[in-house]
Every structure is written in C-alpha cells, then in structure tokens.
Amino acid sequence: xxxxxxxxxxxxxxxxxxxxxxxxxxxxxxxxxxxxxxxxxxxxxxxxxxxxxxxxxxxxxxxxxxxxxxxxxxxxxxxxxxxxxxxxxxxxxxxxxxxxxxxxxxxxxxxxxxxxxxxxxxxxxxxxxxxxxxxxxxxxxxxxxxxxxxxxxxxxxxxxxxxxxxxxxxxxxxxxxxxxxxxxxxxxxxxxxxxxxxxxxxxxxxxxxxxxxxxxxxxxxxxx
Amino acid sequence: xxxxxxxxxxxxxxxxxxxxxxxxxxxxxxxxxxxxxxxxxxxxxxxxxxxxxxxxxxxxxxxxxxxxxxxxxxxxxxxxxxxxxxxxxxxxxxxxxxxxxxxxxxxxxxxxxxxxxxxxxxxxxxxxxxxxxxxxxxxxxxxxxxxxxxxxxxxxxxxxxxxxxxxxxxxxxxxxxxxxxxxxxxxxxxxxxxxxxxxxxxxxxxxxxxxxxxxxxxxxxxxx
DNA sequence: ACCTGAACACCGTTCAAGT
DNA sequence: ACCTGAACACCGTTCAAGT
Lengths: 224, 224
Description:
Low-confidence stretches of chain A: 1-7
Mean pLDDT of chain A: 89
Oligomer: homodimer
Helix content of chain A: 55-70%
Largest interface: A-B, 61 and 61 residues
Distance between the termini of chain A: 59 Å
Structural class of chain A: mainly alpha
C-alpha cells in the first residue's frame, strides 16, 4: 500500500526501528518482535539494524524507554496539585496502568529485561520523593517499593488467572474435578450468581488491581 | 563418571526426563533446558524425548508439577494444627517460598506457563478453604488471591531490584547522575549507614517479602 | 513400541563484501 | 558511512527410516 515504492527509502534510524518494533508488538505480541521482522517492516535486511542498535537487547531496552516516556508524560498530565501523598501515588500508578493497558506486551517486557533502565529508576525515585513528602522514613519508603513491586508501574502479572483457565478444556476439567477444587467451585458459583449477565466475566481486572493497590497503600499509610 | 557406559541405558521415561531437566535448570538456569540438552543428559537424541513428552511445553508443565509436589509436601509437613487463618496462611506461603528459593528458576517458569496446572489450581483452592474457615466471604477470598498474586506461592518478581542495578556500570551511573535520582541516593546512604558492615547488602529479600506479605495479610484480616 | 538421522523453518549474530 | 548476502551456531519439531 505504501506508494513510495520507488522513492529512496527513508534512512534507517534508532527511532524508526523502535517505532516499527512497537507497531509489531502491538499487533502480534512481543514474540513477533524479531530482528528479521523489524527489518522487513522498515524495508531493510535484518543485519542492517545493527548499525543503529547494538543488539536485540538494546532494541528491547529502547522499547522500555518509549513506554516509560509515555508513562511520564501521562503522569505529568494527570497530576493534581492538592493531592495527599496517597492520592498522588494512587493517581500516578493508575495513570501508568492506562499506558500499560495500551501495550499489553509491556508488562512481560519490563519483567524480562535483566537490568533496569534509567527511566524506570527515575520513576521509582519520584515515587520515593512523593512518600518522603508524605512523611515516610527512607526505610518505610524502601519497604513500600518492594511491597508494591510491579504494581508501582501499573500492572501485576496475575499468576492466578481463572479467566485464562476458563478455556474449553480447563472448564470441562474444573467441572469434572469439582471435588478436587471445592472452594474455587463455590467461589465461581457465587460470583456467577452476583453477576448473572456475566458481563465482566470471571474477574474485573481493573477492580482487582485497585483493590490490591488500596490494600497496600492503606497499610503503608497506617505504618507511616 | 557414569560407569554404566557399556550397559544398556536405562529406558527413557517422563520421570527420567523431568529429573534431568530439573538438574539442568538447577545448574545452569531455565534457558539451558533445551530438548537437545535434556536428551544429552539422559544419553539419547533430542528427538527421542517426544515419545515420553508431547512437546517442550509439556516438559515445562511437568517441571511445574514437580515443584508443586515439593511445595505441597513441605506445606503439609510444616503445618501447625492450632493456627489461626492468618498464621496458617503465613506459614504455608513461607514454606512454599523455601521450595522456590531452592529452585531459583521456578518463579520465572511459573510466570511463563500460559495455562495454570491443576496442581497450582488446587494449591489456591486450599488457600481459599483456609480463608473461608477464617470467616472470609467468597468475594473477599477472591480479592485476596488477586492481591497476593505470585506471593501466594512464595515469590515476587522484584521489578525494582537495586541489588541487580548495583553492577559496576550502574553503580557508577548512579553516582554520576545522583542528581537525577536524589531520593534513591539518600535512601541508599541511610540504609548503608544503618548497616555499616553491609552484610545483607542493599536489600534483605526475605525481610522484604515478609514485610509485604504481612502488609497484605493484615489488611485482609482487617477487611474480614 | 521405541529410538534415530537428516531435514525444515525459524532464531540472533558475524563477517567479508559491496556501494 | 551505511547496507547486504551468505554463513554460523543455535532453537523446536517433522518425518521417514531403522530395530
């Protein structure tokens, strides 16, 4: 569809590669981000990428920085001056979450990178600043970062995900082996009863995220 | 070192492959668990594995089940009859953590598997049973599972890990750019002051885990 | 029934060669 | 300087062939 078929192709650049990689990840997931595929997307051979990116890890770090830039921008835009530390923290984290929801591949990427990028470090530094202004000791702020974990950036990896297990096979499994998981079966039944239309399905991810976030923030506020 | 060089090799079996895979993962990490490498470890070609395992995903699911069996066994052994729901939950989760610490590759494996194994589902089912007996509504127990996330199984993936960032390069980076992360710098300084010997380094993972766990359990107990 | 060798379709990456 | 083609060392997996 690109009519510029015969024109001299736009010169490659790190920016261009990163934008192509984001588009691929948004469309087909993180595992589709391949040197060959990115090369194809920008109309070059895979090996040409190495002139603008040290290696694949460098490219992935670039993606992290792009997402962090989006988060920082949104956090700044949605900030409200009069907020208490708890309100500000909550707002900031939920803003970060909105960006994460737009890039479903980002959580896995953030968890996978071996070293933390400067942008991620700075994000956490500002959270500590928020807590210090709210009366936290350094020690408690430190605990808070660990307790929040990835939730500070707006996501949690949901190891226990009944929705994902509700595939045809697993659903049948659960029914047949209901005596093996009696409590979960009862839990499912009650939640289905409370939501007969089943509009939000098994779990409302956003509600669960906010419940856990408030649980943590309230607990931290109490220990302040 | 295996003297049984000329003897007819022990026949392959799923059990044998899984034990070999665990040994490889314990020694060289999860990414070293390769069909070819497992085959080599049991003295067979990689393609022979497919007679005892559907594919690599099936093999990884088998690893999850092995770890879960270890956890279930330890949880049962360390249980204390008179415990309140909170004490029992805490003890159970810390027992699971001990197993996870013996298999550093397990957390990443658990996070990576696309579908939850029956053993993991049953583990969570028993946690719900514990909470129900402690007076939880199904709704609150459901929230609790989501809030705990992977912590229910004794680990948290520690996105923010100053220890990992304390590599030579990052340490220099932090020093040079101390004005970029003033709060973290202050935090580091105070923690270094409180622990002049530096025996536990930047963070005590176990203490951080227990702090976050207690924060969550206390909060849940209060909402019970 | 169980195991094997060769082969296929993918990876990331190196390297010498082109312009 | 930037880009390329061929090649290398890996993957998981298929398939026809062996015993």
